[in-house]
TrEMBL record:
One of its GO terms (cellular component) is Golgi membrane. It comes from Suillus plorans. It is found in: Endomembrane system; Golgi apparatus membrane. Residues 9-71 form the T-SNARE coiled-coil homology domain. Keywords: Golgi apparatus, Membrane, Protein transport, Transmembrane, Transmembrane helix, Transport. The chain crosses the membrane at residues 85-108. Its main location: membrane. GO terms for biological process: protein transport. This is t-SNARE coiled-coil homology domain-containing protein. It is a single-pass type IV membrane protein.
Length: 112
């Protein structure tokens, strides 16, 4: 009977040891799960903030585009015609080309 008690106590102590190991693993797994949840929440908040920033940027960009269109007279009645804008651009390039050519002549005459 004594040997059966020691065997029983051995089994009981082995069960207790395995139960403690299992409890430790469960605690570790719970910690990992909590860390994963916290990280997912942080990423969710970051994505929300990024989405809000892009929405704000989109709104600002559309307002700026509307203001630029109004400034150039591209929107609304009585605005500047497209041909007029093209003429402004071509005239500006022509004026810059003339200034570049005249400046080139001045530089050549100064160095001679």
């Amino acid at each position: 009977m004594s040997s059966s008690r020691t065997t029983e106590e051995t089994y009981e102590s082995q069960n207790d040891q395995r139960l403690d190991e299992l409890h430790s693993k469960i605690r570790t797994l719970r910690g990992v799960t909590t860390d994963i949840y916290d990280d997912a929440e942080r990423q969710h908040l970051t994505l929300d903030d990024t989405g809000n920033a892009f929405s704000s940027l989109s709104t600002s960009l559309s307002q700026s585009s509307r203001r630029a269109a109004q400034a150039f007279g591209l929107s609304g009645a009585g605005g500047v015609r497209q041909m007029r804008i093209i003429m402004y651009i071509v005239g500006s390039f022509l004026a810059l080309w003339i200034v570049w050519k005249v400046k080139g002549i001045w530089w050549v005459s100064e160095s001679a």
